[in-house]
Amino acid sequence: MSPDVVRALVGILEVKDLSTAAHTWRVVLYTRALAEHADLDREVIERLSFAAALHDVGKIDIPDEILVKPGRLTSEEFEAMKSHAALGHERMIRMGETDPILLNLVRHHHERLDGLGYPDGLKGDQVPLAAAYFSVIDSFDAMTSIRPYRSDVGPRAAARAMAELKDGVGTRYCPDAVSRFGQLFETGRLNWILEYFNDSCPMPDYSQLDRLDQIVARTRPAD
Q1: How far, rounded to the nearest angstrom, does the alpha carbon of residue 193 sit from its chain's CA centroid?
Q2: Are 82 and 110 in contact (CB under 8 A)?
Q3: Model-wide pTM > 0.85
Q4: First vs last Cα of the chain: how many Å apart?
Q5: Is 147 or 2 the better-scoring residue by pLDDT?
Q6: Average confidence score pLDDT of the chain
Q7: CATH for the 3-219 domain, from 3.40.190.10, 3.10.105.10, 1.10.3210.10, 1.10.3720.10
Q8: 202 — phi, psi (to 5°)?
Q9: Going by C-beta distance under 8 Å and a sequence separation of 6 or more, which residues neighbour residue 163?
Q10: Coil, helix or strand for 170?
């Protein structure tokens, strides 16, 4: 998929819900940091970055009254929200996308190792590897983002999030994914993302989505 199409789709998400757009930007950077930490080749890193950018593309089709509802969702609304994974996958298929990394990540980033995830209830090794790794990133960001019921997004929140990820190893999360993400977390190289890209800061220009290296170099403190 071309960078222009990715930018357009992420731009639509930003118009619909700024918090979803902020989440998208952060998980792209977390994904890229983890992929580089794992020493993946450049082409795979780029594919993973674009897949992360589009993981919530199905939320374009979620009604605004559900997507941006300030309070707790009803059970019916939550089921509608959960449909975003399948809706995003269907949208990508309609647009002619064939990259298995992108398709698997969009559809399966809410699957769990114990089979209690969605949309397909995949279990264990049935969960595609990219989706299993991204699930850890997606959950970490959800646990460390500002919410109406949570304003503490500092180091303590990040430490609690890591503890919760470790508690979910083998049931919800892939052990290797949590281990590798934990190793990266311990280096401190994720702190700048936590501190800089929050829901209240001005969002970066998505026309720069294909120039992440330069963006990271400008904003990340020296190791």
Answers
A1: 13
A2: yes
A3: yes
A4: 33
A5: 2
A6: 86
A7: 1.10.3210.10
A8: -60, 135
A9: none
A10: coil
